[in-house]
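Appendix B, record 7
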Amino acid sequence: MISVYCLIAFACCNIVTQGLLYPIETETRQIRSLDGIWQFRLDENGVGESEQWFSMPQLPEPTIPMPVPSAFNDVTQNITVHRHIGWVWYAKNFYLHNTAPRWVLRFQAAHYESRVWINGQSAVNHSGGHLPFETDLTPFITSGGNVSVVRVVVAVNNTLTTTSLPPGELVIHNPTYRELVTQFDIYNYAGIDHSVILYSTSKSYVQDIVIDTQSIDFDSQHIATSATLNYTVTIGGAQSNALRVLVQLIDATGVIVANNSDSQSRFVVENPHLWEPCGMNYTHPCTEESYLYTLQVTLYNEGAFNDPVDVYRINHVGIRTIRLTDSKFLVNERPFYFHGANAHEDSDIRGKGFDHAILAKHFNLYGWLHGNSFRTSHYPYAEEFYHMADRYGIAIIGETPAVGLSKTQFTSAVTLEYHKQVAAAMINRDRNHPSVLMWSLANEPGSSDPTAAYYFSSLANFTRPIAAGRPITYVISAGYNSDQGIQFFDMICVNRYFGWYSQFGRIDQIPSLVTEELANWRQRFPTKPILMSEYGADTVPGLHSDPPFMFTEDYQRDFYSAYHPSFDNVSSIIHPDRGFLVGELPWNMFDFATEQSVTRVGGLNRKDLFTRQRQPKAAAFVIKNRYEYLESLRISN
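Structure tokens (predicted):
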């Protein structure tokens, strides 16, 4: 078994020590959103950079208004815009009031390759979607005066390559037919799909914070009596011998429960309130909140505490531990069972674009479903999802965008090194969120190929020391007797579609096939818990038949019900003495967009409990009843 009581040596390599703190407003920091309508145009011939569009006062026509954040693909009625592959350009002018010594321009995410110019000068380049990048704006603006005029121009390219994550290959059939060939079943939405933010700091500022629970002591009634938390604060910008730091842990009532004046140390918290995952008999419903502390870091000059240089707060500190045994997933030393549904960042018009209304609806429906977990399939989500999950105690399996890997990637040293960088960047951003219980480093790779063994052993050896106390896994579609990589990871996550992609229409065969599949994995890996990380069937809303046929709501309803007895037979919470299954996550929560094909009616994957408009199908009520039952099970310590 593995023990994962937390703080690892975070200073092991530079890529892991420099996180990007989420922008917040404090006594010393200002925030300004650049979300809204930007000027936009396609660059179908890829000439924008050579023609220096970034230095022009306006992008050359034809331009259109484009919302940010949003994918650009579905905003217009133009099919050329929808299926565009290549560069697109965004531009926005704004006034910056010079009220702080340092301003930072931050992109929460843009897909896929981004180049940013400020006032005609190259400011920052970034490869990869989903994760934030930023640049110090100060060197590019006019010094002196109270106001500066700023023009930001961004070029974004959605072309994937054999070494990008996810990988893809551009095939040019003829001058008017360009095709991006990929091995994943989601639409390759693109553009500035998360928020753009300006924030200010002082010349000296809090650059990074790491905090995690090292251990919790319990009494005989399993009441927490004390907890030890490790933390590290990194100071950026101008350094001075007069700088001092005060680190305070504040409870939900505003009481300071621990403080320290060292930039790296630990807290001991007496009688702590624990962050608990929701949806278990011993915790809280997923419509109620878990307990969170606030970590406040104050940077000040000696003798001037009341005039701070910088103040930063993390308001989602959760005290909790994670540990795996050979058959259980323990949170705070109690068995936890994942039951929720996977999802995508996907909605009408916006595509993968972040939207607060969609965020709120997302978590409202998880509460209705009694769902306590989801995987960020198949990429890191907007960080606002993690904040909400922290708040409600919904567990997250954080996943890298490594979907569609095959031998081409496994034999590429470039891909492996980039995969390590992406894993480190995801962990950097999300390591302080208590809701993140595990890291998934890939989805359904071609892991039966012999070349997968070296690739995944290298990836696991790199990631485990920086995993911030979480177990690591990847999600498997390969057979139990052919997978070459999961031996190097901590838990088995299996996707299986009996009665859908095989045994068409034969719901009656599902129970025996699921039972056999889980037993085979257990026999090969008797010391690793197992999670059914995907199972599902496409369903057209409103389509019915009796007897149930594929694609009907009736079939999807009975399909899910056929899996559950086999899960219960090996459940780690129903059979704590012999069970080894630690969770079940249907595929998927909401219908989502794909490339058009003969198997995707309307360009949607419809294996979901809810429509793309977030309305329930019949199977949603089956899963709701199922999770109410799981929530009622009494769990022994």
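Remarks on this record: Confidence is low (pLDDT under 50) at residues 1-17. Residues 413-430 form the longest helix (18 residues).
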